[in-house]
Design goal:
The protein is an alpha+beta fold. The protein has a single domain, classed as Double Stranded RNA Binding Domain, CATH 3.30.160. 34% of the residues lie in helices and 22% in strands.
């Protein structure tokens, strides 16, 4: 799966968010660390979504852009 991210550089390092997943963000001292951290954050975000709907049929779809 691919997600667009927004990466911002500051004096403290990098912050990164996923516009398509409200509230999903992370940070890191380097660009590489921030991107690695957002990968983990997306996995945790998606696991939390699954937990919110334990009795529902949750599916994934592919969308070509």
């Amino acid at each position: 799966m691919k997600y667009k991210i927004v990466l911002r550089h500051s004096e403290e390092g990098y912050s990164v968010s996923v516009p398509g997943l409200p509230g999903c963000w992370s940070q890191g001292a380097t660009e590489e660390e921030a991107i690695d951290n957002i990968r983990d954050a997306v996995r945790e975000y998606m696991a939390a979504v699954d937990d919110l709907f334990p009795n529902d049929d949750i599916r994934e779809i592919d969308i070509a852009v």
